Amino acid sequence: MRFLPVSLTTILVELADLDQTLALFASLEADPIEGIEETVPAARTLMIRFRPEKIEAQALAARIATRDLSAKIAPSDKLVEIPVHYDGEDLADVAELTGLSVEDVIRRHTESEFTVAFCGFAPGFGYLVGGDPALHVPRRQSPRTRIPAGSVALAGAFSGVYPQNSPGGWQILGTTPLKMWDIERDPGALLQPGYRVRFFDMDKAGRSTEAPATRSAAPKTVPDRDAAHFEVLAAPVPAIFQDLGRFGQTGQGVSASGALDRSAFNAANRIVGNPVNTPCLELTLGGFSFKSATRAVIGVAGASCVITVTSAAYSFEATPYAPISLEPGDVVTFGNPTSGMRCYLSVRGGFEVAPVLGSAATDTLAVVGPENVVTGSVVNLRNQKTGLSSVSIDEVPAFDLPKAGEVVTLDVIYGPRTDWFTQNGMKTLTSQLWQVTPQSSRVGIRLAGEVPVERKDSAELPSEGTATGAIQIPHSGQPVLFLADHPLTGGYPVIGAVAEHHLDLAGQIPINAKIQFRPLGPFAEIPATENTKFSGDKP
Questions:
Q1: C-alpha–C-alpha distance, residues 366 and 442, integer Å
Q2: Which residues form a coiled coil (predicted)?
Q3: How many distinct structural domains can be found in the chain?
Q4: Which of 9, 17, 41, 429 has its CA 20 to 30 A from that of 465?
């Protein structure tokens, strides 16, 4: 058992195999350790996010090291049967890789009983184990940019079904009409950890399987022009609702998401006196404009941009980080940011927005959350009267907002897979400036440098949990810095992670800025020190 650093609040426990991983996961579920916030199981690792004020990393490792990993997890009574059209693009390649005929590949796949080991990558994506070892095949050399939803595929010892259109490198055997992920279903993911799964050839069997019935749809926010509202006049980039994140859904493959600049998000709510975590609109770049149909008090925090308020009688430039009073008919327009990327729009009393899976956060990768706010949208206001506090007039940005062309220094914690890289590779990461490319998004900042980060070899990494701030190095050697909408698990090694105190800054770095990574210390495994004092111990 190895304990590897992921960030200042997350560790990765590396185990011998999947059985040990599931045994440790079950042990921590049955007998939790105080201070653990979330666990993400994977092929042979368990990623654990914890609260350092409750327990230190070494103390956490010491307690985990005492757990019994010999227990075998009994399979669930739940069996899911999945119909498949075996017409996949890679079926012939899989046959060639395995030395089997296409018919034998299909037969072995349908005769196997799989178990859902864990969920990750995307909502509803279950990693299935227990198939015929003859079907263990590597990922494709060149991943596809788009794999259709419902694709049934193989990679390594796993089988799986893509729940939505997404990029991927697994070998496609066929497709299923079943929906792996349906937000109106309870639970939304058809496959849950522990479920048993069998595939059948629907073209030969002459039958199909009905998906579980969906629950009654959660009430959606219906625009009401007779109520207090903002009408969106322009949204070159769709605005999205955000709060502080959607937690507790990792079992379905859903990550937390949430505001990229939490300091600005919180400031926007304080400006108008809203309770903590009241949903705001996250605006990316400039050009957003809306007309208020009512009196309202708004707040804006984050990226530095000109905010203009106009009506038939007046026009003035409003001040960010201070309350802005609106009258019916006022039009508010946001200019292009001179620094930063994103600002947060709050309104006193809050927006009328229905939560999805307990949160108003919009996950752009998983496509989970409220509908995007676009040109023509009508956004209703709650006008909540209770729970409000006084407006704040002394808010300021938490840091200097970066500009295009500037160098932004980000503190980095090495791990968990730093030892997969050469000394030259580690030096390249920290000594070279990395340019932010236009391919960046809320999922991650894609970087470009003259010299790629060098790995020790090209071995495949079994999928494992990833954290916000992780610096993943794909085969190209050009880093990807994961932001809030990153996939829950990934198969490329992570060389380090941006420290939590710089994540808000990372969320504001514009395209064509440059990043300098500054390590906070050398890479080192976390010792399971038994005499480390726990937060509950007496002095």
A1: 11
A2: none
A3: 4
A4: 429
Amino acid at 217: A
For residue 356, what are the domain limits?
A: 229-380
Q: Summarize the chain as % helix, strand, coil (round to 5).
A: 15, 30, 55
287 and 372, same domain (yes or no):
yes
DSSP tally for the chain: helices H, then strands E = 8, 33
For 264, residues 6+ apart whose C-beta sits below 8 A from its C-beta are 301, 302, 342, 343, 344, 397, 398, 504, 508
Name the token pair of 149.
């939803």
Give the pLDDT confidence score for residue 219 in this predicted structure. Answer: 54
My answer on whether 272 and 372 are in the same domain is: yes
Domain contains 402: no
In this structure, are 319 and 450 located in the same domain?
Answer: no
d(Cα 538, Cα 76) in Å, to the nearest integer?
42
Q: How many CB atoms lie within 10 A of CB 401?
A: 23
- List, for residues 22-75, the tens digit of each pLDDT value: 899 999 999 999 999 999 999 899 999 999 999 999 999 999 999 999 887 777
Q: Where are the beta strands (DSSP E) in 97-239?
A: 114-119, 126-129, 144-147, 151-155, 158-161, 166-168, 171-175, 196-201, 229-234
DSSP 8-state secondary structure symbol assigned to residue 134: G
Is residue 394 in a domain? no
CA angle 461, 6, 435 (to 5 degrees): 80
Omega within 30 of 0 (cis) for the link into 187: yes
Say yes or no: 42 and 138 in one domain.
no
